Amino acid sequence: MIDAELWGSILDITAAVLLVLGAFLSLAAAVGLIRFPDSLARLHAATKPQILGLILVVLALALSLRSGAALLLLLPVVVFQMLTAPISAHMVGRAGYRTGTFDPDGLVADELQPDIEEAGRSDLAPRDTEYP
Q1: Is 100 left (phi over 0), alpha (psi -120 to 50) or beta?
Q2: Angle ∠(84,19,3) on CA atoms, nearest 5
Q3: Quick one: pLDDT at residue 129?
Q4: pLDDT digits (tens, 9 = 90+) for 21-63
Q5: Which helix (H) or strand (E) holds 20?
Q6: What is the rounded CA–CA span in Å between residue 18 and residue 20?
Q7: Reduced to 3 states, what is the DSSP secondary structure of residue 126?
Q8: Is the dihedral of CA 44, 50, 55, 60 positive or negative?
Q9: Cys-Cys link to 26, which of 14, 34, 42, 53 (CB 3.0-4.6 A)?
Q10: Cβ atoms of residues 33 and 45 within 8 Å
Q11: Phi, psi for residue 128 in degrees, rounded to 5
Q12: From CA 33, how far away is CA 27, in angstroms rounded?
């Protein structure tokens, strides 16, 4: 059987590994936001590694504190991020599409263009507009 001191060391090491992994994913998300060329590509960097990094950091904090109350306080943070990140990414993606700040050659399928044409929207930026 594992004694309490060894168990505490195992939990501390696990928390440290999770914290480093979470920090690395958050750093990767930040680098992706800077490096990716257009708004649609940046959405992946803004949501996927950021959410997983946050989950790993919260798990590390919960393991480090070893408290059920702390876990109950941290759980809404993760749930709120998981609910709001896809919605905000969707809104940013739609705004980027409507302003033309994306690379149309990078799209596999353009499912929004027929809907916009059907709606008769003429206030959208033309496709040949160059954005920095």
Answers
A1: left
A2: 125
A3: 53
A4: 999 999 998 998 899 888 888 888 888 888 999 999 999 999 9
A5: helix 4-35
A6: 5
A7: coil
A8: positive
A9: 53
A10: yes
A11: -90, 5
A12: 10
Fill in the amino acid letter for 25: L
User: In the numeric block, which tokens belong to residue 105?
Assistant: 């050659």
The one-letter amino acid code at 41 reads A
Angle at 70 between CA 67 and CA 75, to 5 degrees: 125
Question: Amino acid letter at 45?
Answer: A
Distance CA 99, CA 45 (A): 20
| Distance in angstroms (rounded) separating the CA atoms of residues 106 and 22 | 29
Residues 63 and 28: their CA atoms lie apart, in Å, by: 24
pTM here?
A: 0.76
Which pair of tokens denotes residue 129?
A: 């507009």
Tell me how long the chain is.
132
Alpha helix (H) ranges present in 36-67? 39-65
- Token readout for 69 is 């109350």
∠42-44-49 over CA atoms, to 5°? 120
